Design the sequence.
């Protein structure tokens, strides 16, 4: 699928085909996509535990639920628990030196082994890792980048995905999670039982509401013709139609025995 189409097709899927297995190859592709994400100090900030629902057991599934993560957990055949590693600074000096030796961090920009030891690591990376707020901020951003790449790879593979909250304490115990990993999000994966396009794109505010040109207060102005190109490429699609979606949800409720 073309990149713009993948971005345009992605929806949070909440109704999965519960018995349609997800090929391990596709999960592998998602993890490779996550592993390719850009990352500060070339570190492994993001961690994930891939679980097949039926291996988790009903009792654990029930306990993992939160007020916003309910029936989708029962329906999705695969649950990927994403975590962030707060010890990302370990090995950072060696990895930065490796990038320097390879020329990814070029000498033209001031990089050398001494610069890594005396400036980049000591003055930037180490203080950031030690400060709890800065550490959590860095880990969270990094995880967001990686998780999104996995999510888009899933859409490219014809899967449905959604991110959800989960009970971190229950998962920590059930999945043997180390203390230095912080919970991010639960990604549910499976083949959509609902329209894979979720009945249309979700409402979004115009770019001018959030993006600025030059300085805050000067809203971004759309470039004429771009929206039409993105419609043709599939990144911008029809918005949701509430009535059509209600009818679909009614049918899904009947099929899965869910309350309306
Ligand atoms: C980080 C993150 C956490 C989310 N957590 C939940 C959740 O706990 N339960 C849920 O039903 N949806 C959750 N969502 C899905 C959002 O509600 C969804 O993104 C929103 O409906 C917009 O729709 P879209 O993703 O289809 O564009 C989450 C989405 C993100 C990105």
Sequence:
């Amino acid at each position: 699928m073309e990149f713009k189409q993948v971005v345009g097709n992605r929806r949070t899927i909440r109704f999965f085909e519960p018995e349609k297995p997800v090929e391990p190859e596709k999960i592998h592709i998602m993890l490779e996509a996550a592993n390719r994400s850009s990352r500060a100090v070339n570190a492994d900030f993001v961690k994930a535990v891939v679980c097949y629902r039926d291996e988790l057991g009903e009792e654990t599934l029930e306990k993992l639920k939160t007020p916003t993560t309910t029936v989708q957990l029962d329906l999705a055949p695969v649950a990927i628990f994403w975590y962030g590693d707060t010890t990302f600074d370990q090995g950072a000096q060696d990895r930065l030196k490796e990038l320097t030796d390879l020329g990814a961090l070029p000498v033209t920009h001031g990089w050398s082994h001494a610069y890594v030891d005396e400036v980049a690591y000591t003055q930037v990376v180490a203080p950031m890792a030690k400060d709890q707020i800065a550490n959590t901020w860095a880990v969270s951003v990094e995880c967001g980048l990686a998780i999104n790449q996995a999510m888009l790879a899933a859409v490219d593979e014809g899967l449905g995905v959604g991110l959800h909250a989960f009970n971190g304490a229950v998962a920590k115990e059930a999945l043997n999670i180390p203390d230095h990993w912080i919970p991010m999000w639960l990604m549910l994966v499976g083949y959509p039982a609902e329209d894979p396009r979720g009945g249309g794109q979700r409402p979004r505010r115009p770019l001018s509401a959030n993006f600025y040109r030059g300085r805050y207060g000067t809203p971004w102005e759309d470039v004429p013709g771009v929206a039409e190109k993105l419609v043709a490429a599939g990144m911008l699609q029809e918005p949701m139609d509430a009535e059509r979606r209600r009818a679909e949800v009614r049918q899904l409720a009947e099929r899965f025995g869910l309350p309306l």
Summary: The mean pLDDT is 97. Residues 11-12, 68-69, 162-165, 185, 198, 202 surround flavin mononucleotide (CB under 6 Å). The chain is about 45% helix and 10% strand.
